[in-house]
């Protein structure tokens, strides 16, 4: 009898696990849909979508904080207490520098019914030395959390890299969703690449009328394997051209840290996990389009199709998956 029960349990357990994962995947898809709905509510209130981030021009270290020079804001170093393990089991990024800039995730807090957090944050400089900003930045927002993702290790100060009041390096709240910022088409003066044609732009607002390829065919939000919602420098993902990627053809789309994308030519650089699509779901990466519909992007998605989806105005319409 015990042996029979053990056999039945071994047969039922995988089914239960699949059912639970299916529910988590559905919740993750719903998160992307709620994010796009919030973006549209922001558009209704302001007549434009939020910028991806104000600028990507953030130096590695600046010793003079907030002198009125927006090109040289104070930055903070933060590292994980231990190396994050991404869904595929591969190592994640060790940490990053936090800048003076919020990303789009912070600009739709009111539309996500996070009005208290929305009132707490400001663009005061140094940004994360301000009590309200710091307290908001550690607040977990359920809509930004994939239920299948494992929480990253605690983020702490980079040694000898603290502000004068020693307030940085808190356990910043995670985020698992990136904005679609089009193609990366040229190196740019800062070496970070010129981003064009996305639902989000760097330093610019777009409006519904700018989505000329059609909202059902324009990618707005895509899942990632790791990140912080309070950091604008990692707000978005852009798909590099072959010239930018140094490849003969379109480069890989997904990160090797993904549960189902850990083989073949997937992107393996741990630091790029912050800004590369990826997922804790083995079936695919959750995503939502500008019209609000959500879906799973297969890890075998055609790369040319992906480029057409991530650009809003290239004139090459394609049917969304």
Word description of this protein:
- The chain is built from 6 helices and 9 strands.
- It has 321 residues and is of the alpha+beta class.
- Strands 4, 5, 6, 7, 8 and 9 form a 6-stranded mixed beta sheet that branches. Strands 2-1-3 form a 3-stranded antiparallel beta sheet, with no helix packed on it.
- Strand 4 and strand 5 form a beta hairpin.
Layout of helices and strands, plus pairs?
Layout: H1 2-46, E1 76-80, E2 95-98, H2 104-107, H3 115-120, H4 131-137, E3 155-157, E4 177-186, E5 194-196, E6 219-223, E7 236-240, H5 242-245, E8 285-289, E9 294-297, H6 303-310
Parallel strand pairs: 4-7
Antiparallel strand pairs: 1-2, 1-3, 4-5, 4-6, 6-8, 8-9
Terminal-residue CA separation: 48 Å
- Average of per-residue pLDDT values: 83
Structural class: alpha+beta
Radius of gyration: 20 Å
Order of helices and strands: HEEHHHEEEEEHEEH
- Residue stretches low in confidence (pLDDT < 50, at least 5 long) are 60-64, 161-168
| Global morphology | globular
Helix content: 10-25%
- How large is the count of helical segments? 6
Total beta-strand segments? 9
The major beta sheet can be summarized as:
6 strands, mixed
State which percent range the strand residues make up: 5-15%
Short description:
The protein has helices at residues 2-46, 104-107, 115-120, 131-137, 242-245, 303-310; strands spanning 76-80, 95-98, 155-157, 177-186, 194-196, 219-223, 236-240, 285-289, 294-297. Strands 4, 5, 6, 7, 8 and 9 form a six-stranded mixed β-sheet that branches. Strands 2-1-3 form a three-stranded antiparallel β-sheet, with no helix packed on it. With 321 residues, it is of the alpha+beta class.
